[in-house]
TrEMBL record:
Keyword Ion transport: no
Alphabetical GO biological process terms: epigenetic regulation of gene expression
Gene3D superfamilies assigned: Histone deacetylase domain
Protein name: Histone deacetylase
MF terms in GO: histone deacetylase activity; hydrolase activity
Classification via SUPFAM superfamilies: Arginase/deacetylase
Amino acid sequence: MKLPIAFHPIYKHPLPEGHRFPMIKYELLPQQLLHEGTAEKADFFEPDVANLDAVLSVHKRSYVDELLELSLDPRAARKIGFPLSAELVERELRIANGTIIGTQKAFDNRIAFNIAGGTHHAYSDRGEAFCLLNDQAIAAQLLLNQKFAKKILIVDLDVHQGNGTAEIFQENSSVFTFSMHGKSNYPFKKEVSNLDIALLDGTNDETYLKILAESLPKLIEQQKPDFIFYLAGVDILATDKLGKLSCTIEGCKKRDEMVFEQCLKHQIPIQVSMGGGYSPEIKTIVEAHANTFRAAKDFFS
């Protein structure tokens, strides 16, 4: 089975000192997938930078120009959380293109992955919380513009609400935004998705999976999407430093399996971006993310 995976080596597009953990997962996760045989070398591709026209289909030109020229207002740059640099902007453009290419590959392979991505806090006119450009929003709009899809469903299961994605598509009826997240987690001022499910602190596997099982199949039946984008953050784990839910690694994998099962049942291509994961031990983060790939291989083989 072909498992297309966009890969962005940190050593080529370095992150500033002090920001490598947990971003080191972008290097360790491919190594783990290759080591255990879940993926092969031929599955990985390293994208070039995204076409600016695609980026500008969802992000305002003034904001993109400020990123490219490194002229963001210092207050706006601080909200992003990374020191702004040409290397960082290039990395974000490559991540966005990894998701764009992944959507194309998903039509042939039924599923495609981005080792990075899930930058759902990037708004049309600003970035925040380590997100500069919204990779799945850019790719979704491009699918619509090129008429490869008429209706898109974004399934955001990161512990944090996809506020930027909600803002970008608030006037676009061709994209349905679904965010299931921690009620008291960042962002503290939520945007309005088409469907928001806010979970209480301490939500465990049983409750989480029950809510998802009741919501996702119904949503797919109602919306009948041509394509699904899935943000598979593993910050729903009880061990996560920035999450407040109480899910286990096994529960997180069952969540992924639910999403893949629905895509397979309805024959809907899916692109998966990895999103957040901030457990204290890097092995926990890598294991939880690797489970998403393992589940995909089990379902789509």
